[in-house]
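Two entries, shown back to back:
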Amino acid sequence: MRPRPVVGVVVVVLWALLGPAASEGASVEIGPEASLCAEINALAPGDELVLRPGEYAGPCTIRRGGGPGAPTVIRAKDVADRPRIVYGGATANVLDVEADHVTIRGLAFGPTQRSVDGIRIFSRAGVSIEDCEFSGLGGIAVVANHFSGRGFIVRRNVIRDSRGTAMYFGCQDGAWCTLTGLVVERNYIHTVRAPDPEIGYGIQVKLNSVALIRDNVIVDTKGPGIMVYGARDLSAVSVVERNFLMGSIRSSGIVIGGGPVVVRNNVAVASHEGGLGLEDYGRRGLLRGIVVAHNTVFGNQAGGIVTPENGVRDALLVNNAAHARVGAPALPPARNGVELAGNVDCSLLACFTNPEARDFSPLLGAGLVGAGAVRVGPWVPGADYLGNRRGIPPTVGALERPAGPIPLAPKP
């Protein structure tokens, strides 16, 4: 049994290459003494507002944007000394973005009061959040769950000590709003502690929204580090690749609530449940069109890669290096709806150079190097977690060759 062709990968990768173009409008520079919100909403399409270091008074609703290829830009003059947007109230968010084609770059947010978000997006196209820092937020750092939108990019941001889910995209029912062309990459999330009954995700992408989630480092979350809910349209394929996840205190590192999705070249360690778990969320029957390939999972309490006994219709698990603690399964058993190929159980075998120090380099002679199943398909990764070219046959797991410890820091 094979998953359907992953035609949507091409679409989402093309969106990943379409970053905001350089602004051709005027550049205005201000300091903390200026009225930030008035200056933002005085910008013409394609203008940029440059903020000197210091503290600026929030909140603000951004109502004027740019156009395709010419976004309105609000950015730091010096990313090494970020301007901080300060809001101590509880009746608004720090920034609400209601305009299309807006880029926010290099700003700092937080702390905020309970349920006060950093950036809440009401736009429909072309919003980019880049190189920002969110610390001590009482709400969500970046959220878009009001209107259907396309072409949102969230990259190279740092989120620390969040009391709410770090990033939230799409609508729960998959009907009121959906996002397409969403790219979430190279973000660093450390410590999410949402109060009960909230879950406290690192990154979640809701039903029928489609995303490319790659090269993120997510550590110490309450709920899943990453969760995608899938889509009813089998051509709407999300991709989760080259992420490092460590230490979900109540869940798995990655949770797949539905397909179609490609999950490849991730490293997921030391979580309460599995490193990577499939879950028939809401009994929607969407666990189909799923590829789980070339992942490394280690030291997760309830298992390595975990699937439910029922509800999986079409999943391929191939070339994964999976370790589990004593008494927990590293890999699921073969059952209807699940195809296994080229996976290696590392529970009783020393597969990695020094996993306790986060060095998951394949150990020579351990049965990983050159031991992978050779498959053909658009989902097959040509490179590994670090971008090294895959061999033929490939090495099992996320790393093709020795690489050293994975740092707890933003991925370069």
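entry 2 starts here
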Amino acid sequence: MEAVPATGDGCQRRARERRVSVVAAERLEAAPGTRCLVLQLEPTPYILPRALYLLEDANLHTELFFTYLNSSQPWGRDADIGDIPVLLDPRCSELGKLLRVMRLMWRILRGDFTIAHLAGWGHWIVRMAILSCKLKGVPFSVESDSPLLPGLTGWREWLKRSVYPIWMNWIGYAIPGGTRQAAYFRYYGVADDKICVSHMTVDTEKIRRTVTPSRKEFRAMRQIPDDLVLFVFVGRLLQQKGIDVLLKAFATASTQSRQIGLVVIGDGPELERVQKAAADHPGRLWSAGRADRVGVITWLRASDVFVLPSRDEHWGLVVNEAMVCGLPVIVSDACGCADDLVETGRNGHVFRVDDVAELADAMLDLAQNAPKRRAMGEQSQAMIRPWTIERQAETIRSALVRMSHER
């Protein structure tokens, strides 16, 4: 059994943003009398730890609320929130849910909170919270993983360009996950000195501590040859994830190298396509189905290269996970994390979305060069080392503390 440690000295920050620095020596405390509202969408394994970080700060006097439980998928024990309120609690009636929401809005308007931190703005409850904060004069920060996309046109974009700058001017601090997300806020009118890049991440330390079977042991159990260069995909099997592109690229690359294998981990509408491809490539392509957190980490540690060929991906947190596990990463340029986490030639490749040939070439390049794979995997571990939940949470806390002094 093994827990893979991180290596390296960290990475240079490449995002060219003006940021609110998090320096321990200059760590401010919240102004006296601060009462903080934190509203998050759901307690995922990467949201819950940083929400608890804010909740445990005695100077913020935080009240934490979640909108949903298990909205995107069942999170199991990783989403154990105890007695933290859930506004749309599935155990409540529809009337009960509405009353919970309206009570929170009334508390904002009544002045129960002096600052607030809100998750995005896509959900109607968050929009109500934004409006309530504005009406009461409660300064608030907004976090988002929405990236700026190229070639924005059409009437919807015209409408957003007309409306978004109005309400985004209300934001105390914008907290994007990375470079493209910061560009999104800037595009819609948020000033640079109000943008705090939080470095979107998973609980990297928890991954490092996770005990799994060794690569050799796990591969033997799964009858995967030890010398097979195993590429791995993890995610929901949706059309937007580019599963068809991955399977075509694998088919192309595997005709030129018998060393290449592929495992697809996940479930969804594209499962039948994956299972058919697995049947066409026995002993070289596996459809592993959905896996829990430990199962995903086990597969990552038993693999050689991670691939995320998405057509639409706001970030791609599984890239963070793969890097912690020491894998080179190949991602499409539609992945929101590409600018921050992947450097072609250093720790992987960034290929043009939907370009089967380019992806196949990247797979062959890494399949045929073991020293290069190892070096890139080491670089992945080094680059992801500073990307901790604590750093992300501290960026949010820093913005909240500054708002408490700027009121």
